[in-house]
Amino acid sequence: MPQQAVLPFEDPFEWFDAWFAQARQSAMIEPTAMSLATVDADGQPSLRIVLLKGFDRKGFVFYTNLQSRKGRALLSEPRCALTFFWPELGRQVRVEGAAQAVGEDEADAYFASRPRESQLGAWASQQSRELASRADLEAALAEVTARFEGQPVTRPPHWSGMRVVPTRIEFWQAGEARLHDRWEFVRRAPQAPFERRRLFP
What we know:
Elements: H1 12-25, E1 33-39, E2 45-51, E3 54-56, E4 59-65, H2 69-76, E5 79-86, E6 91-101, H3 104-113, H4 116-124, H5 134-147, E7 159-173, E8 181-186, E9 195-199
Antiparallel strand pairs: 1-2, 1-5, 3-4, 4-7, 5-6, 6-7, 7-8, 8-9
Helix pairs in contact: 4-5
């Protein structure tokens, strides 16, 4: 059921942190799921679901194969958008900004925390490329499994994290008769404070 409207926070990061904590404490299956919209070099938009793996005042982090369709799109055009939708809470959060690669140490630390099977899969999958058969994928996995037998799996050079640095964050709370509450925070320059305003539903 939708939550009661809440008094807005002055700071968008504190607001997201509070809502995200409530989402994680709820019974929803995957509160970290977020839609990621990108645009390629030809201006073609593309949308998919990724998982939030880190969040702080610098931005929202997810990980991917940089040679995938989304990776190539973000390296060509960093501007992108995210949407979190938590229907059980009657809430969504929209984020607009630009993506930038996380540091090598940060990417290495996250990769090391992943299950070994996921680490091996990052080597085996040529994400978004054409695959002739499932057998080819299984053969690639067998090859990297043998290659790293008895030793740690290192992070592939083409696999890393992207941090979406926000310039706009909108908080949406469902209301009766579709009279929703919407609050928007906009940053006009990289180091400028966010400006807050209320929007019509």
